[in-house]
């Protein structure tokens, strides 16, 4: 299941039926794009989610797209909220966006350098999980020029990084599975290896804003995670990492019930499953230390000090993981629910 560990962890590997992927997520090179349309009218006021017509330019091609706001908490805190792009299905112009229908776009949230840094840090979190698991959302980083036909957009927001998240349908097709929409799910149905990997990964990036249960105001499980069914086994696919310690956004606050000082403080929120599954996941993540840290090295747009801050934060996990038994004992103490 996890790449490059056939000789080490053969029992964890499951066959992955990979369908022909859309070209957008086949590469990780930064793409320069331009979104042309009534940007100011789109984002003001934010309580509206009306679609508006835009033109997307990329690699010499133009695409007609309908754009609307998306998200929940970010709509309350962001000056520039996340967007959803809906492509014209009759658009046959070949190019980077061939085959796309709806795309989730993560934007810079705040019209300052910190907001842009946060985009890159959250992008890194997605890249790290995709490095660790085949059952993960792929992402593509953009350098976005927002051309506002209203001519009211702040210059500070005109050119910023953002990234697209692979649609769930494309992930399901790659994995040979199906999307699952349910309100609740027995713990016994979750794929144990993927679950353990999610637990360790969320601790690695310092994220507590997720769970395997239905979130408030949602109609399907799970909080900041989608469910993928493959051969009657359920895989939790995490997303939304803006409240994680690796990002440390200005607006990020821990749940008061956790009694944490800030989001940089790590708190294990995994569920109580057998220790050996968690041990195997922890050992695997430890084996990928160099590759995980390399994600930070490969990020564009970060100053050396910002890159060092990210690597130091990730490095603190790996230092703690050197004492494997002690960390596993902490996980056992903090795990949620009864041991399955």
Briefly summarize what is shown.
By secondary structure, the protein is an alpha+beta fold. 31% of the residues lie in helices and 19% in strands.
Instruction: Supply the CATH architecture of the largest domain.
Output: Orthogonal Bundle
Compute the separation of the termini in Å. Answer: 22 Å
Total count of domains: 2
- Strand line-up of the largest beta sheet: 1-2-3-4-5-7-6
By CATH reckoning, the class of the largest domain would read Mainly Alpha
Number of strands: 10
How would a textbook summarize the main sheet? Answer: 7 strands, mixed, barrel
What spatial form do the alpha-carbon principal axes imply? globular
Count of alpha/pi helices: 9
Which ranges are low-confidence, i.e. pLDDT below 50, for 5 or more consecutive residues? 3-21
Proportion of β residues?
Answer: 15-25%
SSE sequence, one letter per element: EHEEHEEHEEHEHEEHHHH
Explain what this protein looks like in three dimensions.
The structure is a single chain. This protein is α+β, with helices and mostly antiparallel strands. Helix 5 packs across helix 6. Helix content is 31%, strand content 19%. It has 2 domains: 146 residues, no CATH class; 159 residues, Phosphatidylinositol 3-kinase Catalytic Subunit, Chain A, Domain 5 (Orthogonal Bundle), CATH 1.10.1070. A 7-stranded mixed barrel has the order 1-2-3-4-5-7-6. The chain has a 3-stranded antiparallel beta sheet with strand order 8-9-10. Strand 2 and strand 3 form a beta hairpin. The two termini are 22 Å apart.
């Amino acid at each position: 299941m996890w790449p490059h560990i056939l000789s080490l962890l053969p029992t964890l590997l499951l066959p992955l039926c990979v369908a022909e992927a859309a070209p957008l997520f086949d590469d990780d090179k930064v793409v320069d794009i331009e979104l042309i349309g009534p940007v100011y009218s789109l984002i003001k006021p934010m309580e509206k989610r009306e679609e508006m017509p835009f033109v997307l330019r990329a690699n010499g091609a133009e695409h007609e797209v309908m754009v609307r706001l998306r998200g929940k908490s970010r709509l309350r805190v962001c000056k520039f909220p996340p967007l959803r792009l809906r492509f014209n299905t009759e658009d046959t112009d070949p190019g980077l966006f061939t085959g796309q229908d709806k795309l989730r776009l993560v934007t810079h949230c705040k019209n300052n350098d910190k907001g842009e840094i946060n985009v890159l840090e959250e992008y890194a979190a997605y890249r790290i999980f995709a490095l660790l698991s085949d059952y993960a959302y792929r992402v593509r980083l953009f350098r976005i020029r927002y051309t506002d036909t209203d001519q009211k957009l702040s210059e500070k927001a005109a050119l910023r990084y953002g990234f697209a998240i692979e649609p769930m349908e494309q992930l399901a097709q790659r994995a040979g599975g199906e999307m699952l929409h349910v309100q609740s799910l027995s713990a016994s149905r979750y794929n144990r290896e993927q679950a353990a990997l999610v637990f360790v990964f969320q601790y690695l990036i310092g994220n507590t804003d997720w769970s395997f249960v239905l979130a408030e105001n949602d109609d399907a499980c799970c909080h900041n995670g989608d469910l993928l069914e493959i051969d009657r086994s359920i895989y939790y696919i995490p997303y939304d990492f803006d409240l994680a310690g690796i990002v440390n956004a200005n607006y990020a606050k821990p749940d008061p019930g956790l009694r944490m000082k800030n989001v940089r403080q790590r708190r294990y929120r995994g569920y109580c499953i057998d220790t050996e599954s968690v041990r195997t996941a922890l050992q695997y993540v430890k084996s990928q230390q160099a590759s995980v840290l390399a994600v930070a090295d490969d990020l564009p747009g970060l100053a050396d000090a910002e890159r060092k801050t990210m690597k130091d934060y990730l490095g603190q996990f790996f230092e703690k993981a050197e004492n494997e038994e002690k960390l596993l004992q902490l996980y056992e103490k903090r795990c949620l629910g009864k041991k399955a």
